[in-house]
Write a structure and sequence with these properties.
Blueprint lengths: L3 H21 L18 H11 L9 H16 L4 E10 L4 E12 L7 E7 L10 H20 L8 E6 L2 H4 L1 H9 L6 E9 L3 E9 L5 H10 L10 H7 L5 H9 L3 E8 L16 H18 L13 E6 L3 E6 L3 H21 L5 H32 L14 H26 L2 H22 L7 H16 L6 H27 L4 H14 L1 H4 L5 H21 L9 E3 L2 E5 L4 E6 L9 H4 L4 E2 L17 E5 L8 E10 L2 E9 L6 E6 L3 E8 L2 E2 L10 E3 L2 E7 L7 E8 L5 E8 L17 E3 L7 E9 L1
Parallel strand pairs: 2-21, 3-4, 3-5, 5-7, 10-24, 11-25
Antiparallel strand pairs: 1-2, 2-4, 6-7, 8-9, 11-12, 12-14, 13-14, 15-16, 16-22, 17-21, 17-23, 18-19, 18-20, 18-22, 23-25
Helix pairs in contact: 1-16, 2-4, 4-10, 6-9, 7-10, 11-14, 11-15, 12-13, 12-14, 12-17, 13-16, 13-17, 13-19, 14-15, 15-16, 16-17
Length: 771
């Protein structure tokens, strides 16, 4: 007879290999395939294009932006496609942004008269220092190379194919806004494929957008036969939690056009920084995007795009070799009810036949509950303690540090150590079926919530179903088969589906989500209780995972400092308040460093120089400031073109000129304002034919206007109630801190970079308008 310890070794090996495979199976190899056929996607060609368009930051309005635009136009023309540049003033209410965009458009004529397929990505990089390789240069070149390979087949598609390389996505989805609201081709679009990024690596997730049900979109995506589909119906809910939308959102909200996002989020620390470079682009991720593109382009080029609407929603998730597995939302509640009834039935029968004991079941809740509470508390307070130990983490605004993967490994390992520690006495004294009841009960409670409030997570029923089967076998089977290995094999589907979620949440939403990872880990440990109960040396296993967690924490500490590959983000602004005739140096950093000390000194004042200052995407305000010498900056020219009263309404037209050619003009309300209409350079903020139009602003940003040419003038026309107090600060910003000869500045060291998501390296002139 085989010694039980060998079964344990095999079981542990299966679990470890399954967890490894759950991540490995999500994306293709990083190897660059050498293609001999012109009709195949060539990563080499695409990478050459990516290198070309990411040499310098190329945000909307910059000189390099025009260079990149011209290069992309020439690449499309090489494919024999006529190219159109859509120039249009665009305004976005949600993001409070406006600019004149330049979308790059081309169209491949199909043989049919149905709806067109639109291929979408944006070519602008984020303000003001991002190189934009992943976000979204990778999407742009995947489209360019994919279209080249598609055209090389010399086959006429059934559907027209529109290529939209949009502009000003980073400013507020403005290129997409302009296309949807102003271009004639928008009404022809039946489906959008959008390629995006929120990091520089990891698997690419499919995130669909629709105003209706997802049934036909999921069925169509399945038919496209992508090689590595990574998606589940919970992801879109998580995606909506993120503080940003994509260009595709504009198509869905503004024109009821459905589509698929393909986006990756790993290595989040590179997002919107100078480190989003060609060299740091993960090749496995790049190949994943290419695999999505070729499969979906080939399928949807000939599919019926007028029959994708549905009122039915599917629960769906990916599984190796099966692709997407899906079933209707309507099954979620019945599946939960059936499982709940079976749970009560198995529980009753188990107690009746003395396979379960009330005492054992009750005591089985103790280690599971303690594991859950202790692990959640450790992750929640542990991360806050780490922020105290390493205050520099606060300067990484999106919340995922360079050593973030070590922290995920650390807290997951410590959670498993706690679980084994709390369970070690109970494993020896209680049966596996008694100990199984508590985790099964918790999984059913979660599914009860899911069934009625979050059906997109309906696939969470799978662990409950498998635990019910295991509980039944444990109670009633008379077979002599070793259940340790049998139950280990039963765990494989759950580990494959759920293990990646433990990592995905803190990567996508920041390390504050480590507490969710800890809870998930306890739930998965509870699911594995019928296996772990049969192991020997539970105390040693607890110590092994404790050691692993401590080693991960030590590794994280070793890599907590900054280096050339892990650059420190910092920020500095020069602000001149023309009304007060005072100047300040300001920073979004919580502490000074060798670079910012030359401006702020050793003891800057904490907080903002004014209560009304521009905030970051993550609502981070100015943290430090100090008085500065006044330098000669040419002020903006602000004039009132019109100020009239008609009945209860007051119409105002303001004109702002920038003699110093500033990059950005921001309007901030000092008191709440309710606008009855609002236009930027003759472009309405909203369809003003609607009588109910109201645009209300509390204290803070009204609008950010991004200038794109030297002589561009901002003209704002709005209507308010005649009794409305108008008290507005105008912040005119120019990214000239290092080029203005009036400032003698020592540049950042090689281990530093401009902080993303905030106004940076700029001179600002602040002027107040009170009417």
């Amino acid at each position: 007879m085989i010694n039980k310890k060998y079964y344990q070794i095999v079981s542990i090996t299966i679990i470890l290999l399954t967890i490894f495979y759950s991540f490995y199976s999500l994306s293709p190899s990083a190897k660059i395939k050498k293609n001999s056929s012109l009709t195949e996607f060539s990563a080499d060609n695409a990478l050459l294009q990516l290198k070309e368009i990411t040499k310098e930051p190329h945000f909307t309005g910059s000189a390099e932006h025009e260079v990149v635009k011209n290069y992309l136009v020439s690449e499309l023309e090489k494919l024999g496609l006529p190219v159109e540049i859509q120039e249009q003033m665009a305004v976005n209410n949600k993001w409070g942004a406006a600019t004149k965009i330049k979308n790059i458009l081309a169209r491949i004529k199909g043989s049919g008269n149905g709806k067109a397929l639109l291929l979408l990505s944006h070519y602008d990089s984020n303000l003001h220092s991002s190189l934009g390789a992943s976000d979204a240069g990778s999407g742009v070149v995947v489209i360019l190379e994919g279209v080249r390979a598609f055209l090389a087949k010399k086959e006429i598609p059934k559907n027209d194919i529109i290529i939209c390389i949009s502009d000003a996505e980073e400013l507020g989805l403005l290129g997409a806004n302009a296309f949807v609201n102003h271009h004639l081709w928008a009404k022809d679009v039946g489906l959008v494929l959008n390629f995006e990024a929120r990091g520089s690596g990891g698997p690419s997730y499919m995130l669909l957008e629709t105003n209706g049900g997802n049934k036909k979109l999921i069925e169509a995506f399945k038919q496209a036969k992508t090689d590595y589909p990574v998606a589940n119906s919970l992801m879109y809910s998580i995606y909506k939690m993120l503080p940003n939308d994509t260009d595709l959102t504009v198509f869905r909200e503004g024109a009821n056009i459905d589509g698929y996002n393909f986006a990756f989020i790993d290595d989040h620390f590179d997002y919107h920084t100078v480190q989003d470079s060609y060299e740091r682009m993960d090749m496995s991720t790049f190949n994943h995007q290419a695999s999505y593109f070729m499969a979906t382009l080939n399928y949807f080029a000939d599919a019926d795009l007028e029959n994708l609407k549905s009122e039915t929603d599917y629960v769906y998730f990916n599984f190796p070799y099966f692709g997407l597995v899906f079933y209707p939302f309507s099954w979620v509640i019945p599946m939960f009810i059936v499982c709940a009834v079976l749970f009560l039935l198995v529980l009753f029968m188990g107690v009746l036949k003395r396979k379960l004991t009330v005492e054992g079941i009750t005591k089985g809740f103790v280690p599971f509950t303690f594991s859950m509470l202790a692990s959640a508390a450790l992750a929640f307070f542990g991360w806050r303690l780490l922020l105290k130990i390493h205050p520099q983490y606060n300067d990484i605004l999106h919340g995922f540090t360079y050593n973030g993967y070590y922290y995920i490994a650390a807290f997951v390992s410590l959670t498993v150590a706690l679980c084994f520690w709390f369970y070690k006495g109970y494993f020896a004294k209680r049966s596996k079926q008694d100990l199984m009841v508590a985790p099964l009960f918790f999984w059913l409670m979660i599914n009860g919530f899911v069934a009625f409030y979050l059906p997109g997570a309906g696939f969470f029923i799978l662990p409950a179903v498998i635990l019910l089967v295991i509980l039944f076998i444990a109670q009633f089977s008379v077979s002599k088969v070793n259940t340790m290995l049998l139950f280990t094999l039963f765990s494989i589907p759950v580990l494959i589906i759920f293990a990646p979620l433990v990592k995905m949440l803190p990567v996508g939403l920041g390390l504050k989500m480590l507490v969710i990872s800890a809870v998930f880990t306890v739930l998965l440990f509870g699911f594995m209780v019928p296996v772990f109960q049969q192991y020997k040396n539970h105390k040693k296993l607890s110590l092994v995972f404790l050691l692993m967690g401590l080693m991960a924490l030590i590794s994280a500490s070793v890599f907590s400092s900054y280096s050339i590959d892990r650059k420190k983000p910092n920020s500095v602004l020069y602000v001149f308040d023309s009304n007060k005739n005072e100047a300040y140096w300001a920073s979004y950093n919580t502490d000074t460093d060798d670079f910012t000390k030359q401006f702020l000194g050793e003891n800057p004042t904490k907080g903002g120089y004014d209560e009304n200052t521009t905030a970051s995407k993550y609502r981070t305000n100015i943290q430090l400031h100090t008085k500065a010498e006044i330098v000669n900056l040419e002020k903006p020219v602000i004039s009132i073109v019109e100020d009239t009263i008609s009945g209860a309404d007051r119409k105002l037209v303001l004109r702002i000129e920038s003699p110093r050619n500033a990059n950005k003009i921001e309007l901030l309300a000092k008191t709440p304002i309710q606008f009855k209409s609002f236009m930027v350079n003759m472009e309405p903020l909203k369809n003003e034919t609607k009588a109910e139009f109201v645009f209300s602003v509390g204290k803070g940003t009204i609008m950010n206007f991004y200038r794109t040419s030297k002589d561009e003038i901002l003209e704002i026309a709005f209507v308010v109630d005649k009794s409305q107090v108008i008290d507005i600060d105008v912040l005119e910003a120019k990214y000239d801190l290092f080029t203005n000869p009036q400032f003698k500045i020592t540049r950042r060291s090689e281990i530093m970079m401009p902080m993303p998501f905030v106004l940076n390296d700029a001179t600002i002139i602040k002027t107040n308008i009170k009417l």
